[in-house]
Amino acid sequence: MKAKLLLYGSAILLSGHAYGCADKPTNPYSDTTNLPPVETRPAGTDYKPAFPGQTRIGGIKTTTAYKVDQLATAIGRPWAIVPIPGGNFLVTDKSGFMQLFDGNGKLIKKITGLPAVDASGQGGLLDVAPDPDFTTNKTIYWSFSEKTGTVNLMAVAKGQLNEATGTVDNAVVIFRATPALKSNAHYGSRIVFDKDGNMFVSTGERSILEGRVQAQDLASGLGKIFKITKDGKPAPGNPFIGKAGAMPEIYSYGNRNVQSLDIHPVTGDLWECEFGPRGGDELNIIKAGKNYGWPTITYGTEYSGQKIGDAIQQKEGMEQPVYYWDPTLSPSGMTFYKGNAIPEWENNLFIGGLSGSHICRLVIKDNKVVGEERLLADKQERFRDVAYFNGMLYAVTDNGNMYRISKQ
């Protein structure tokens, strides 16, 4: 398709300035669906992809005019932004509390009364998700790093949101990703509900070598995606129920550090994005009982540049990523665009990039990535989470800023 006019983002909207519309395109390519790959830096390895299009797919450019509002600044240390019924948003703060905002970024209430978090390093209060029946039961679920003695782990708790008092009532921990280790990194973790009201919960392998090897161990809760009930029990039909020595809550394994989870709005498949080490960040479709390979196979290297293990990228019985990045994106929260207010974004995937300092837009067709675009790269921020609501995208950054992207 030939675009008569490129209407895309070039400057942030703040106090009424919109992305781009009247400027003549400076890109010499007139076809916005067939641009060069957005990544131009050299790869960190000479590893070869397993199939065409597994990395550095062709670039694309949004043609629908959109605007970006900076809704709030200095909101603290946000980790997740999650819409709740009624149009408000819960934003978790790593320090151990939540904040309730309206859709225009106005702070409504600070929410306290949660169990203590271990807020060192990458730890703290992490994700939050409303119960599918939130409108009637006001229940929310959240993940956090929990300290026990000199060690810690990722835990999931639930309670009732009391907006009037700014507290969470009846808070109780329902699940722990054991074993606890002495580390302040790689907790995961995201929470997403399936259509049956069960939760997918991700965790990391805690970064240290002791935890890394446990990503392949079904007796360990490290480097896994779990599927649990609202009470923290193994979800019915889980792949390892009844398997000797295996945690029955495990849904997939061999995952490194999963901070991105969402369910495809059409297929119902669970998608995740996880940190590789130095390069090798992965996008996967998660299937019950499958092994995603870490640390046996990877497209990355140690942070020192040394090879990992046998330096192999493929092995029978281990899943290949749908897509990978080298150099790294450092993927955090992600969401599918579930509407068509911006028509070409329908069912596209948007991923917050930390070291990548942009929001990554991926066009997916037949479970393959067919195009990639970078949004808000001019802001040079670490995008911690991205959420979809009512035709718009909301994002929070490590600098404590909140943005909204909507059709102009």
Can you characterise this structure?
By secondary structure, the chain is mostly beta strands. The chain has a domain at 73-323: Neuraminidase. 2% of the residues lie in helices and 37% in strands. It contains two helices and 24 strands. The chain has helices at residues 134-137, 209-212, and strands spanning 66-72, 78-84, 88-93, 97-101, 107-111, 125-130, 139-148, 151-162, 167-176, 191-193, 199-202, 224-228, 250-253, 258-263, 270-274, 281-286, 323-325, 331-336, 349-353, 359-365, 368-375, 383-389, 392-397, 402-407. The strands form six sheets. Strands 1-24-23-22 form a four-stranded antiparallel sheet, with no helix packed on it. The longest helix is centred in the N-terminal third of the chain and has 4 residues, at 134-137. Residues 1-30 have low confidence and may be disordered.
* Multimerization status: single chain
Q: What fraction of residues sit in β-strands? A: 35-45%
Instruction: Count helical runs.
Output: 2
CATH top level of the domain at 73-323?
Mainly Beta
Largest sheet: 4 strands, antiparallel
Elements, N to C (H/E):
EEEEEEHEEEEEHEEEEEEEEEEEEE
Q: Give the second-level CATH assignment, the architecture of the domain at 73-323.
A: 6 Propeller
Identify the strand order in the major beta sheet: 1-24-23-22
Total DSSP E strands: 24
Topology-level CATH name of the domain at 73-323: Neuraminidase
If you compute it from the alpha carbons, what radius of gyration comes out, rounded to the nearest whole angstrom? 20 Å
Q: Provide the helix percentage.
A: under 10%
Mean of residue pLDDT values:
93
User: Which class best fits the helix and strand makeup?
Assistant: mainly beta
End-to-end separation in angstroms reads 22 Å
- Characterize the overall form: globular
- Which superfamily, in CATH terms, is the homologous superfamily of the domain at 73-323? TolB, C-terminal domain
